[in-house]
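Let us work through a complete example step by step.
Step 1: write down the sequence.
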Amino acid sequence: MARLEAAYGKLLEALALVACALIFSMTLMICADVLLRNVRIIPGVAGLAWSNEISEAMLYLVTMLTAPWLLRRGQHIRVDILLRAVPRKLGWAFEWTVDLLGLACCAAIAYYGTRAALASFKAGSVSIKTLVTPEWWLLSVLPVAFLALSLEMLFRMRRLALGERAPRDDAVSTG
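Step 2: predict the structure and record it as tokens.
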């Protein structure tokens, strides 16, 4: 199980690197758009009309690609003041409660996200903006990301079960 978890961690790191590449590409694209709007380098080209739409999609993809990686690293949003104020074993029980709720939420979003993506695919829905794209392309990322978050929640629970009977020490706001 430890080898599987380590391999999964490597996959999440690779997805985070893809997100970095997307941010870099988005930066270059926005710079090119601004340059082409203000300096007439290419006759007849006044910016990249599709850059806003692609930037929106890239921001969404970056969020979905990095969420499981951030959860694994303990760099997600976490309110831990109560965990530090209660006895250690009770804090550990709270960790379990939150992880179970997180798993349930992630699994539900993965399920309903899959249903939405499949419905969009079957209906042949398209997004019509500057670009015309199948709607399911972006919708399909949501269930994959939340499935990855669900898996990470399971690994978190495994680490919690194997570790000390106390709240986690990752990403704490106190001490």
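Step 3: interpret the result. Residues 2-38 form the longest helix (37 residues).
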